[in-house]
Amino acid sequence: MNKPALFLLLLNFAVIGALPRVFFRSDGRFNLKWWLTALPFGLSPLFVAGSTAVGWEPITPDSWRTGLTLVAVALNAVSIALIFLTLGTHRIPVALWHQENDDPRHIVTHGAYGLIRHPFYAAFLLAFLSGAVLFPHAITLALFCYGFVALNTTAAQEEQRLSGSEFGVEYRRYLARTGRFLPRPGRSAPAETSRVGG
Question: Where in the cell is it found (predicted)?
Fold first, then answer.
């Protein structure tokens, strides 16, 4: 396995793993739903690094390895860039996933959020996809699928909560023009940024 590509993948997951401690609000608890959502974030890099450490690699044609490595590196680079772009968009830390006290204090519709509603989750999914591309195996693919279902479920719950909040009217307009994890084709972000609440 390409060691720099593996390092970049592990660095990406390390950045993701640090977010709950260094960026997200610390007034919540890591409940069972949080741990179930977080599970693949630990298992995916552990499986890839552990397999590589013992010299076990999936069987892929030699002619594919360079291409898969380049795709994985690109996915990791975009993921890391999107994480930092999203961090730069926030002025205050946001709530952890699945917290009882994560009622919205404001909504953010500018920066990374101007095109997609969940740029953190999109970045996380890119990291999972990168792991599956760099180390194509049923386990990395299963962890990507598990991560997608967990993050998609979490995103849907957050959207429902925001739609029913005091910011519901504006948030529903925002839902209509942005995609959950990918930009909506033919839709453009509003000309001015919008921030509601405290």
Answer: Membrane
In CATH terms, the fold of domain 3-184 is: Four Helix Bundle (Hemerythrin (Met), subunit A) (1.20.120)
Q: Where are the domains of the chain?
A: 3-184
| 40 class by beta-carbon count within 10 Å (0-12 exposed, 13-18 middle, 19+ buried) | buried
What pLDDT is stored for residue 95 in this prediction? 67
Q: Enumerate residues 6+ apart whose C-beta is below 8 A from 106.
A: 167, 195, 196, 197, 198
Q: Are 117 and 180 in contact (CB under 8 A)?
A: yes
DSSP output for 41-84: HHHHHHHHHHHHHTT------HHHHHHHHHHHHHHHHHHHHHHH
Alpha-carbon span 168 to 117, nearest angstrom: 14
Q: What is the mean pLDDT of residues 145-173?
A: 91
